[in-house]
Design goal:
Two copies of one chain form a homodimer. The radius of gyration of chain A is 16 Å and the shape is globular. Chain A has six helices and eleven strands. With 201 residues, chain A is α/β, with parallel strands linked by helices. Chain A has one domain (2-200): Rossmann fold, CATH 3.40.50.2020. Chain A has helices at 2-11, 32-46, 62-72, 131-142, 161-167, 191-200; strands at residues 13-14, 20-21, 29-30, 53-57, 76-82, 91-98, 103-110, 119-127, 146-156, 172-182, 185-188. In chain A, helix 2 packs across helix 3 (62-72). In chain A, the strands form two sheets. An eight-stranded mixed β-sheet of chain A has the order 6-7-5-4-8-9-10-11, sandwiched between helices. The A-B interface holds A 23-25, 28-32, 35-36, 53, 58-60, 62-63, 66, 69-70, 74-78, 80, 109-110, 112-113 and B 23-25, 28-32, 35-36, 58-60, 62-63, 66, 69-70, 74-78, 80, 109-110, 112-113. Chains A, B: Xanthine binds at residues 20, 27, 156.
Chain lengths: 201, 201
């Protein structure tokens, strides 16, 4: 998604070869117009599938899940992060280890809102190590729902997340795929190109 | 907002005379259509003011800040909750004590995204004790920005939040104002009525 790549080039702060801050327009201050365009792009990519629910994790996935859910015309659901799972109701839960923050937490979803009838699109802001997204995929499977794809706004393609998800049989689409970065420079994988290449294999 | 009050009557789970769960349509699973209507209502109420930014707190304020920001055509910004404030950058922060969860945390906003030029609308899902919203008001004032109002989706009018905010000179509008509740019943303050009454004083 060219407009997103250009915005990352212009406003993203690359703090190291793995840390990219996009908090001026994506995940602290949010350019709502861009978020809605991101939702439309997910709608273009996944709109042909019979999705019944968009799933994400609080907090920074919410704006993109909402944008996708506007485009697809379905509700969205966000997993909560908790140190301890509440026992007051039945939940699906999965452990997640954040490598960035060096901490572990539990993500959970009420069993009332996800079940065998649901056809799910998972959306998140970043795909890097894939820890949180793998947790969401586990929850979708535990719920007996059908997973129709994962959409990430930004993918750090040099990290293992995409590989982990593809090994689980999950189809992944990211709107900006970073192949490498360092302070002052960022390189994107050309999505069109990679589609052409994989088509010719 | 009648459609919201009806939805609370139909789907809200009143667990005690202070605890209302609305996680089937507002703050876990989200009915995006209703969230957009809520945004439009905030737009109707506050649209005549020169708002430059909508401000909320992660996580469950995000969908309503986004909806308001779509209606008003401005970006939104969400405060982060942290146990310890990061020292890697300059932030405005305020302590918040959650009476529901019996825990204290720090909310913070990067100084880059809020300043004297900003005219702010604060939006959140609930106004009850007002703890989080008072923290946000403190941050807006610390930043030297101008606060043009607070919009809450649901207000528990029998708790002290509105009074605290009004004592700070803040104008508060809530879309559903609960005067009293108990398992199986919920009573709303008629917003039109209360506007009429205050106009005739």
């Amino acid at each position: 998604m060219k407009v997103l790549e250009e915005r990352i080039r212009r406003e993203g702060q690359i703090l190291s070869d793995t840390v990219l801050k996009v908090d001026s327009f994506l995940n602290h201050q949010v350019d709502t117009g861009l978020a809605l365009e991101i939702g439309k792009e997910f709608g273009r990519i996944f709109g042909g599938r019979p999705i019944t629910k968009v799933l994400t994790i609080e907090a920074s996935g919410i704006q993109f899940a909402m944008a996708a859910s506007i485009a697809l015309g379905v509700p969205f659901l966000y997993a909560k992060k908790k140190k301890v799972v509440t026992l007051s109701e039945q939940v699906y839960s999965a452990p997640v280890h954040s490598f960035t923050r060096q901490e572990s937490y539990q993500i959970s979803i009420s069993q009332k809102y996800l079940g065998p009838g649901d056809k799910v699109l998972i959306v998140d802001d970043f795909l890097a190590t894939g820890a949180a997204l793998v947790g969401l995929v586990d929850i979708v499977r535990e719920a007996g729902a059908e997973l129709l794809g994962v959409g990430a706004v930004i993918e750090k393609s040099f990290q293992e997340g995409r590989g982990l998800l593809e090994d689980m049989g999950v189809e992944v689409h990211s709107l900006a795929r970073i192949s490498a970065m360092a302070p002052g420079e960022v390189h994107f994988i050309d999505n069109e190109e990679s589609i052409k290449e994989s088509a010719s294999c």
